[in-house]
Hints:
This protein has 384 residues and is α+β, with helices and mostly antiparallel strands. It has helices at 9-19, 23-29, 33-38, 45-54, 89-111, 129-140, 153-165, 211-227, 245-259, 262-272, 278-286, 290-299, 305-322, 331-338, 341-352, 358-365, 369-378; strands spanning 170-174, 176-177, 180-184, 192-195, 202-206, 233-235. The protein folds into three domains: 9-63; 89-259, no CATH class; 331-378. The strands form two sheets. The chain has a four-stranded mixed beta sheet with strand order 1-5-4-6, with helices on both faces. A two-stranded antiparallel sheet has the order 2-3. Helix 7 (153-165) runs parallel beside helix 8 (211-227). The radius of gyration is 23 Å and the shape is globular. It starts with 8 loop residues before the first helix and ends in a 6-residue tail after the last helix.
Amino acid sequence: MTSRADVRPELLRWACDRARLDPVDLAARFPQLAAWDRGERKPTFKQLEKFAKATRTPLGYLFLPEPPEERLPIPDFRRVSGEVARPSPDLLDTIYAMQRRQAWLREELADCQAGPLDFVGAASLTDDPEDVGREMRRTVGVGEGWAAAVRTWQEAVSHLRRAIESLGVMAVINGVVGNNTHRKLDVEEFRGFALCDAYAPLIFVNGADAKSAQMFTLAHELAHIWLGPDGEGLSGFDFLSPGGGKVEAFCDRAAAEFLVPERELRAHWGEVRHEPQPFEALARLFKVSPIVAARRAMDLRLVDRETFFTFYREYVAQERRSRKGAGGGNFYNNQNTRVGELFASHVIFAAMEGRIGFKEAYDLTGLRGGAFQEYARRLGVDFP
């Protein structure tokens, strides 16, 4: 006789809601789901294992007496109205994975007697955010007109991410959980987050977002690092007004000055103000979203609020009609953003020197066997 799992129906419902899956699709995969929900039947242990995998739920959770209350492990600065929505398994798994990377790298750097990074926590909310944005720009090493000299938004994002990593900040851009293309991250849920640490700071950008939006998120999350532990948290914004109070407002203003310096914008305004699409022209110059360019122009009183909000409503409506999913790209090139050369290099050398096992290296990077070695070779590391 097949043994069956004694699982409460409310746990099954909780797992379905938590996974944000279409109930119709889930019912098609598990024909007995309705009977389980009514308590008329019990799933077999094998069926329950498949259900847990499908809903991305730890199997042990389904045997609890009541649904657990899952909380974000970091502060939440997202724009919200009313109660904060339950975090998705994709978001939680992404944060946990990044926290594991950060903890490992911090210990690795401590063993190497590396010193703390002096820019982490160098700013406070009492500082002028524009001054902080200029200091960030100086520290990162991007000069005047750098974005205009870059051909595409993709190249600009790559250039900025590498510059940030050269400071010792892990800068991860990924639109899926690890390398699982079936688990796409939701831009509506979050755009990025920052994990502050004096030795191994990390910023994560939702790669499912548009490249122009990724530029702003990179700079915004870097401002969180400048604020230190008080700036650690999850961001979700639409460039209109931040939902995380003073912290998000500060980081928005610092990021705006970092990407679209006031002096440069005023110098170019006379050239573009009479064009049919002045904000798109600015966006091409600074490699940011037209929304960011327009908001910056309004904040500097180059256009009035009515002009900005008219453009904002039209642009958002157009963007929603034309939005497409993120592309795939080359697997190994994707690892430069999903893992990052900074973190990957430390893991690779630790594995080669025998300080960690290859299984741990695979788990940390999300790469297995031949893929791990091939990516190492592409970073210039040859295995014996």
